[in-house]
């Protein structure tokens, strides 16, 4: 194996970014990795005032003491969230270097980091906005070139009444909606490889069933095999990230509620609305944590187990579920 211990930080950063690119992160994520690595690395000099040329910084120079000093300089003018993100990037970078045999250990545990601030919920604004959105999308309009209200309503119902992330929606298969009558559920491939089960009520189940019936009429019975992607585009192809985002944006436009969607949380606003309404309607923090697939309530709070019956009761009390049921005559 080629000895890389004498290589420059600049070269190793490029190797690391090449490795991360194989995991298909967004261009924004890769750009953030590069920015955090190069900015902090340039501050590893003796005084930190003159940026160091990265091709002249050997990786062996990045001791815990040097990294602590560099992060102190980096943190001075920046918000805690930015420092926390950069720390995480460097931790991933050193983990890569250890795995490659470039360095014997990761110095980042010896470098202090601020606690990551908890993100503020960004639900749809307006007491009746979710109901207005569902009603507008359920009504087929002549303005659409190829309307498919059954599919669009299924997407919104799963996001608003099951709290699914964009990636979780895209990963759903036809067989992901399962269970006996009265105990229907969505089996979700959650963030970080953590699977979870979210109960769904009769209204959402009916919406999904109506969508699958419409899909059979469009593309034939083979299109709804159990292992087929649950969400498809108007050509019958699996929905992709951009297509799903555009679909939700178009639903907002058709409902005329674009001004009630928080900036930077277009599809995620539906998930946040699910969680916010659960809390408003009496669900405990532990129930919300379990239903949304969070790893913990907060870094200082232990994970609390709840029963499936408690989860179902929490979902049943959700007013958005009741609105979906009324739309399809299920309650």
TrEMBL record:
<dbReference type="InterPro" id="IPR013762">
    <property type="entry name" value="Integrase-like_cat_sf"/>
</dbReference>
<feature type="domain" description="Core-binding (CB)">
    <location>
        <begin position="7"/>
        <end position="98"/>
    </location>
</feature>
<dbReference type="InterPro" id="IPR050090">
    <property type="entry name" value="Tyrosine_recombinase_XerCD"/>
</dbReference>
<dbReference type="InterPro" id="IPR011010">
    <property type="entry name" value="DNA_brk_join_enz"/>
</dbReference>
<dbReference type="InterPro" id="IPR044068">
    <property type="entry name" value="CB"/>
</dbReference>
<keyword id="KW-0233">DNA recombination</keyword>
<keyword id="KW-0238">DNA-binding</keyword>
<dbReference type="InterPro" id="IPR010998">
    <property type="entry name" value="Integrase_recombinase_N"/>
</dbReference>
<protein>
    <submittedName>
        <fullName>Integrase</fullName>
    </submittedName>
</protein>
<comment type="similarity">
    <text>Belongs to the 'phage' integrase family.</text>
</comment>
<dbReference type="InterPro" id="IPR002104">
    <property type="entry name" value="Integrase_catalytic"/>
</dbReference>
<dbReference type="Pfam" id="PF00589">
    <property type="entry name" value="Phage_integrase"/>
</dbReference>
<feature type="domain" description="Tyr recombinase">
    <location>
        <begin position="119"/>
        <end position="316"/>
    </location>
</feature>
């Amino acid at each position: 194996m080629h000895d890389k211990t004498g290589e420059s930080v600049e070269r190793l950063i490029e190797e690391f970014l090449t490795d991360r690119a194989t995991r298909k992160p967004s261009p924004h994520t890769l750009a953030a990795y590069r920015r955090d690595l190069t900015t902090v690395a340039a501050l590893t000099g003796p005084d930190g005032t003159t940026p160091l040329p990265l091709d002249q910084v050997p990786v062996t120079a990045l001791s815990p003491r040097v990294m602590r000093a560099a992060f102190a300089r980096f943190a001075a003018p920046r918000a805690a969230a930015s420092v926390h993100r950069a720390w995480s990037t460097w931790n991933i970078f050193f983990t890569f270097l250890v795995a490659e045999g470039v360095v014997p250990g990761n110095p980042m545990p010896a470098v202090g980091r601020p606690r990551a601030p908890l993100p503020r919920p960004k639900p749809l604004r307006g007491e009746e906005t979710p109901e207005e959105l569902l009603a507008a999308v359920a009504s087929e309009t002549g303005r659409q070139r190829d309307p498919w209200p059954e599919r669009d309503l299924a997407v919104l119902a799963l996001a608003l009444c099951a709290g699914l992330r964009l990636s979780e929606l895209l990963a759903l298969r036809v067989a992901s909606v399962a269970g006996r009558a009265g105990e229907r559920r969505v089996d979700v491939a959650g963030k970080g490889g953590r699977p979870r089960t979210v109960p769904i009520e009769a209204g959402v189940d009916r919406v999904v069933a109506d969508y699958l019936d419409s899909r059979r009429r469009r593309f034939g019975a083979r299109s709804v095999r159990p292992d087929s992607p649950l969400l498809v585009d108007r050509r019958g192809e699996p929905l992709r990230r951009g297509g799903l985002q555009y679909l939700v944006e178009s639903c907002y436009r058709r409902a005329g509620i674009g001004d009630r969607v928080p900036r930077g949380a277009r599809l995620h606003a539906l998930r946040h609305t699910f969680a916010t309404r659960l809390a408003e309607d009496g669900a405990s923090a532990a129930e919300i944590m379990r239903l949304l697939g969070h790893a913990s309530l907060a870094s200082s709070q232990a994970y609390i187990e709840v029963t499936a019956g408690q989860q179902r009761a929490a979902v049943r009390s959700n007013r958005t579920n009741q609105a979906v049921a009324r739309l399809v005559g299920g309650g």
